[in-house]
Design brief:
Length: about 425
């Protein structure tokens, strides 16, 4: 499949990464530094930040003001909501999810990191690893974020000490062996001064690794996606019914796995009807292939019954429909999650209702201890839960496919999302 691989590599020039860390570790300042040094902000934006910094009596430019957009965040000097920022360099485009550091905003961090290719955990060089640092590393591991960077920030406040860096590096590397972290990089930086962020630090000549920006630009993410198991959840049936496209019938959605090509034999689930791909359209042109995370319209050779919530897959490699779901849940509501509770569930493009059969344990994300005596999950807690859905879900284990292996839980009375789930298995 050389032509497909070349196309995939060429189109994988975007990196989604999520920042995490304790309060005051400098996440917002680091993002501000990345935006500034990559020349991704306008002069008037910088002038406004400089003026605000001066009015507050600071003797430096507070780059955090570039990202903390809510007034309450600026007043408190903390990040509350997930702030998404976009910038680009000649090498790559970036989407940053700046997530909160407070423990009470764990759900916000789960939201921001759920689609990330890379997790960026900051620690204060003066404080070393904290409970929150470990907590965020565990959550990124649970979310199967394939790449992790530990940025040891504020090195200027410890006189750029190699001894301090080595100690934190050794401690975190030992802790990471307990987690599922395939790729780890530890980089000493000073976000405020700019050392090792975009430009190499002259103050840390003992460090021979990459700068943060160099690593972000060059980390390989094309192979992180599942390009073997074809998964195409149908989001919309496209029927223009115009004079130009009188008989057009296509199925729109985002490719969740595998590579789709015209001529491929496919099966439509849950009906089990088979057909072949007649063509794949992107906007107003036909393309030779589609792969994650492209949003396309697929046309089939046969007039089979396909509707929203169905899934197109390969006949020999299709997901097994399942109504009994074993999953890790991050609970987000004020009222606790309890057995026998009924909720709405949204999985890819399929919606259903579900019953909580059992809560097996609550995971202490600081110690990795499994509390099997728990009877409920409180706000921001994570636990293993058994669910029974009203209709079969076409799912994969989260470890195999982060799209078809995840879901959200919704309170039917309010329509509010109350939980995020990662599927271990279905039966």
């Amino acid at each position: 499949m050389p032509d497909a691989t070349e196309s995939i590599t060429a189109n994988m020039d975007m990196l989604r990464f999520a920042t995490a860390g304790s309060v005051d570790d400098g996440k917002s300042t680091l993002i501000g530094r990345l935006l500034l040094d990559s020349k991704s902000i306008f002069e008037d934006q910088l002038e406004a930040v400089e003026a605000t910094s001066a009015s507050k009596g600071y003797d430096y430019t507070d780059l955090a003001l570039l990202t903390d957009g809510l007034r309450s965040e600026r007043e408190q000097g903390i990040t509350i909501d997930v702030a998404y920022r976009y910038f680009a360099t000649p090498a790559r485009k970036f989407i940053i999810a700046d997530t909160p550091g407070h423990v009470q905003y764990t759900r916000n961090m789960v939201t921001g990191a759920s689609t990330a290719d890379l997790g960026l955990v900051l620690v204060d060089a003066r404080q070393g690893l904290t409970e929150q640092s470990r907590r965020h590393a565990v959550i990124l591991s649970l979310l199967r974020v394939p790449h992790l960077v530990l940025a040891v920030n504020k090195m200027d406040l410890v006189d750029f000490s190699q001894e301090v860096y080595d100690k934190i590096h050794a401690e975190f590397t030992t802790f990471a062996t307990k987690l599922n972290i395939p790729d780890l990089e530890v980089i000493p930086i000073s976000a405020l001064a700019g050392d090792n962020v975009v430009n190499r630090s002259e103050n840390m000549d003992w460090y021979s690794g990459p700068t943060l920006m160099h690593h972000l630009e060059n980390v390989h993410v094309a192979s992180d996606r599942d390009l073997v198991d074809v998964r195409f959840p149908v989001q919309y049936v496209v029927r223009p019914k115009s004079d130009e496209h009188h008989d057009y019938r296509g199925y729109g959605g985002m490719v969740a796995g595998g590579v789709l090509k015209p001529g491929d034999e496919v099966v439509v689930l849950p009906s089990g009807m088979t057909s072949k791909i007649a063509g794949i359209d992107l906007f107003d042109q036909e393309i030779a292939e589609a792969f994650p995370p492209m949003s396309v319209t697929v046309r089939l050779e046969d007039d089979v019954d396909v509707s929203r919530g169905d899934m197109i897959a390969r006949p020999s490699n299709a997901p097994k429909p399942s109504q009994d779901i074993d999953a890790m849940i991050c609970w987000m509501a004020d009222a606790p999650l309890k057995p026998r509770q009924k909720l709405a569930i949204k999985h890819t493009t399929r919606s259903a209702r579900t019953l909580v059969k059992d809560i097996q344990y609550r995971l202490d994300v600081n110690t990795l201890h499994r509390d099997q005596e728990t009877k409920e999950l409180g706000r921001n807690e994570i636990g293993r839960v058994q669910l029974r859905t009203t209709v079969p879900l076409l799912c994969d284990p989260y470890s195999k496919n982060r799209t078809t292996g995840s879901f959200i839980l919704i309170d039917e009375a309010t329509g509010i999302t109350v939980g995020a789930g990662m599927i271990n298995s279905g039966a």
